[in-house]
Design goal:
heterodimer, A: about 300 residues, MetI-like fold, 13 helices, 4 strands, about 70% helix, flat, B: about 375 residues, alpha+beta, Rossmann fold, OB fold (Dihydrolipoamide Acetyltransferase, E2P), 2 domains, five-stranded antiparallel beta sheet, 8 helices, about 25% helix, globular
């Protein structure tokens, strides 16, 4: 007869086995659908570009060298390439600006929704998510209608007599930024709302009661308590905006390339798949380093509660 | 006569809540009350009676629809909470989860812009006052409910408010801890000399702790008085019913005057009772008799009945009697070690009501 211990051990073994079995589909998706393609990208970055796109199975580090360096046409010496670096830099700074702007706009929005009565919040959240129903490309073209030389903004400006000739808005960094903020704002509002909704608003009252003014309550009580939402929202906005390519392409034109457009170019007209692959991996590395840095810094200062 | 200057005074305060799609709710209806300096004042009443609303109006979390709230003679009703020298201990404590115990206690002083050295000294003094020195650097999520309660008290007392508001602060604690904190609160009030305004629905808590009690119901204050006043001289039936246990009897008023009245009960028995000075003879009246003021006797008393249940409580015994006229009546009898209560279920008994035991109530 089995002792109690043996029974318990068997139950535990069975439990572990069934857990593995049940998580197989998820593990398959992770390995086959996420890590597999990534591995292919890494392999491609070390191959030679083919003549009509595609790759030749011939080992080469050219792609990686050209991410950072420029080979002189005449004497083959290497010098630091500024073209790609400046595109990386523009991408990172535009993404940072997008993140900061969506945070500035999203914070009061989320606060507004979180302080409405329960039955009203759903309506506001619903309104926030409505843009998701429309295709990104269409939304971006709609943005173009607003920013064009004969678009809404310029028409209004001229009507009011503020300018007599249209202000160039399209194909500027401003246009790209405006478009990205518009596209990514819901991704900031939703996580912010999720953590604001959990705040016990008696804490806010306690703050006022203890002589904190409105701005002090905001800074010392609300912001620390919604830090998890700020972190989540920033990540959700920063990462996709680094890789964004529809918005910069449509609103920024050819002159304001972002890293996403550059990568797309290598796989399309550029016919340099290894370089595209190398650029993709570089982008991923930047994102990961940025994330590690960001998460560690924000959680160290305030995030230990919860 | 020298008038004692009230610390807090509500003058004709009305607060009406308008909820969408519903009728308006009159949470406070023309309430006036004066709370003296250094007093332990309790707002007592069932949930929904407006006691918390009144407290929130004093704290500044809410504004009155009509009326004035005076703090030492100055109308503070329009001021935001951070401009009122009043602090609150919240029902849920509302401690800041992202700060340590010490940071919580020092928060008010920090917001007032006091120098760091002063804040530190004051925090230490407060920790000592509530016996929490050992847990100074803990996070508030790492301490027990009773300890959180102490921190909440220390945090509210640290800025030395003129008035401390307490919103059912003991309701989340278990029985024993609650008893302990009741004594602790009395001690703190005595030591700090701060006016305490305490909100509770627990009549026992109100009786044991307060200097004066305001009994509230449906947005009105029914009676303000010492615990002894409201227990032994309730102004109306609701107060008598809400505070302690009470037997109610009905009868005809035969004669009245001089604060006394003679009542003929339905059974025909005549008893004497205290009554309001302006009470007049004629008509029906409700009488109240506290269970401990009535006495069970073998044979005939002022009332007669049959014992239905006897409940032993350790310190005393509650004997439930069904009166011959039909009503239930409860007598509380002190226990002694040597003898049982002397009665058994089904016994025919009399109840004698002393000259001083009954009171006529206005309905």
């Amino acid at each position: 007869m089995a002792t109690a211990i043996e029974v318990a051990e068997k139950a535990e073994r069975d439990d572990i086995r069934s857990r593995w079995l049940l998580s197989t589909p998820a593990l398959l998706i992770v390995f086959v659908a996420a890590l597999g393609p990534l591995l292919i990208v890494v392999v491609y970055s070390f191959l030679t570009p083919g003549n009509y796109g595609d790759v030749k199975w011939q080992f080469s580090t050219d792609a990686w060298v050209s991410v950072l360096f420029e080979r002189d046409v005449f004497d083959d010496t290497l010098s630091l390439a500024t073209a790609y670096l400046s595109i990386f830099w523009r991408s990172v700074s535009l993404s940072l600006a997008t993140t900061v702007l969506t945070l500035i706009l999203g914070f009061p929005t989320a606060y507004f929704i979180a302080t409405r009565p329960d039955h009203r919040r759903d309506i506001w959240l619903f309104l926030i998510t409505i843009p998701f129903w429309t295709n990104l490309l269409i939304r971006t073209f709609a943005m173009q209608q607003v920013l064009r030389n004969d678009g809404i903004i310029n028409s209004v400006l001229q009507l009011l007599g503020i300018t007599d000739h249209p202000v160039q808005l399209m194909y500027t960094n401003f246009a790209v930024l405006a478009g990205m903020v518009y596209v990514f704002l819901p991704l900031m509002v939703l996580p912010l709302y999720a953590s604001m909704e959990k705040i016990d608003f008696r804490l806010v009252e306690a703050g006022y009661d203890l002589y904190a003014t409105r701005s002090q309550v905001l800074r010392r009580i609300i912001v620390p308590l919604v830090t998890p939402g700020i972190v989540a929202g920033s990540i959700l906005v920063f990462i996709p905006s680094l890789g964004a390519y529809v918005t910069p392409r449509v609103l920024g034109g050819g002159t304001n390339l972002m890293i996403g457009n550059l990568i797309e170019l290598q796989f399309g007209q550029g016919r340099n798949w290894p370089l595209g692959a190398a650029l993709s991996i570089t982008l991923m590395a930047i994102v990961m380093v940025a994330l590690l840095f960001y998460v560690r810094n924000t959680t160290r200062s305030d995030g230990a509660h919860g | 006569m020298t008038a004692i200057r009230p610390a807090v005074e509500a003058k004709g305060v009305t607060r009406i809540f308008r909820e969408t799609g519903q009728d308006q709710v009159r949470a406070l209806d023309n309430v006036s009350v004066a709370i003296r300096e250094n007093e332990f004042f309790t707002l007592l009443g069932p949930s929904g009676c407006g006691k918390t609303t009144l407290l929130r109006l004093i704290a500044g979390f809410d504004y009155p629809t009509d009326g004035e709230i005076l703090l030492y003679g100055q109308d503070i009703a329009p001021l935001p909470p951070f401009k009122r020298p009043v602090n609150t201990v919240f029902q849920s404590y509302a401690l800041f989860p992202h700060m340590t115990v010490a940071d919580n206690i020092g928060f008010g002083l920090k917001m007032l812009g006091r120098p760091k050295a002063e804040i530190e000294a004051r925090v230490d003094a407060m920790l000592k006052l509530v016996h929490m020195q050992a847990l100074k650097n803990r996070r508030t999520s790492q301490i027990s409910g009773g300890q959180q309660q102490r921190v909440a008290l220390a945090r509210a007392l640290a800025p030395q408010p003129k008035v401390l508001l307490l919103d059912e602060p003991l309701s989340a604690l278990d029985y024993k801890l609650r008893k302990e904190m009741q004594i602790e609160l009395k001690r703190l009030q005595h030591e700090t000399g701060i006016t305490f305004i305490f909100v509770t629905h627990d009549q026992e808590e109100a009786l044991t702790m307060s200097d004066r009690i305001a009994v509230m119901s449906a947005g009105n204050i029914l009676q303000v008085g010492t615990p002894w006043d409201v227990y032994d001289h309730p102004s109306e039936r609701f107060v008598a019913d809400f505070i302690g246990e009470t037997n109610f009897l009905t009868g005809m008023v035969e004669s009245a005057g001089d604060g006394r009245a003679r009542i003929t009960l339905r059974s025909g028995a005549k008893i004497c009772a205290t009554a309001a000075a302006d009470f007049r003879a004629g008509g029906n009246a409700t009488l109240m008799v506290r269970p401990e003021h009535a006495k069970l006797v073998k044979g005939r008393g002022d009332l007669t009945g049959t014992i239905e249940t006897i409940v032993y409580f350790g310190t005393d015994t509650h004997i439930h009697v069904r009166l011959d006229e039909g009503n239930a009546f409860m007598v509380r009898q002190q226990n002694s070690r040597s003898a049982s209560c002397g009665f058994e279920n089904g016994d025919k008994v009399g109840i004698s009501i002393g000259d001083d035991a009954a009171q006529v109530l206005k309905d």
